[in-house]
Prior knowledge:
Helix content: over 70%
Number of strands: 0
Structural class: mainly alpha
Number of helices: 15
Oligomer: single chain
Strand content: under 5%
Distance between the termini: 42 Å
Amino acid sequence: MQNPFTKNIISLCMGGIGGYIFYLENFPLPWMLGSFAISLILSIPIGYFDVDNRLRRIALPILGVLIGSSFTPDIIAQVSSWPKGIALVFIYSIVVSLVAYLYFRKIAKWDNVTAIFSAPPGGLAELVFIGSDAGADERKMILSHSIRIALVVISSALIIKFYFDTDFSRIIIKNPPLLDVSIVDWSILILCAVVGAFLGLKFKLPGGALFGALLLSAVFHMTSIITVKPPTFIVAFAQIILGTSLGVRFHGITSKEFKEIVSHGLVVSTLMITTALIMALISFEIIDLDPRALYLALAPGGFTEMLLLSMAIGVEATFIATCHVTRIFLILSCVPIAAYFSKKDQK
Length: 347
């Protein structure tokens, strides 16, 4: 038997390969979903791989800092510009979360906490790791959310292309040179991750280390004290850690259990996508927005993927970004609290 250090290195290399393959093929959330997919496929029959929980504790605050960096002054200023659109996103999120929860609870027969954390239309990594700490089933959460994101990205591209009869333009996004990140910026980013994680755990915030880092990063970015995001390679490495650590937990799962989780995830994901499209088509004239923009704002996919789609067709990218940021904040604020009171009532 090899020592735990070697096992961790081999596992992360395996995850990195999966993430890189997904990155080359332009998959959504490539580094996390790619590392998750390959570690899941190999761990089920082999069972050798493992990722130390201490690495997860390092990766989570990085993810929190990244999410917090989305709360720029421009985003915050725009929230008041689209009250009807933002309100519709809130209504959609609450309605589909409730319906998904009832489905997972009553039809799929999942436990209460797992159903709560699997139901919301956003926040894959955040909900999975917060839910894990709350006692939810990681396997069910990661599979149901992964299916949702993949299905939303694929179906949204098809809906925009064929239903709305819209052509896509090619988008090339260049990250700023790494050397442009100053020592002060590095210091603040590290401060947000370390101090935010400490405060989140100390004061038992919902989401702990991740949410603490998110809040501190949001404060610094909203006040323009810092404008840069965590470097891409650090975020990618954090996602590889998280994705691999999730995939290796599937050793021992039966084919029947796997198929059941996937089938339930497909049903709920299809329901969410259909509801988003219907609500967008019904309300776009009232809200006075392009129905394509409204659909992408409601669609329960990844922040980056929906934003890229909006940029590719030239519609309201700022509105869509604002909606997804506020929805993630709503979900991360409310879901852990709902799970806490749910568990308290059961005692």
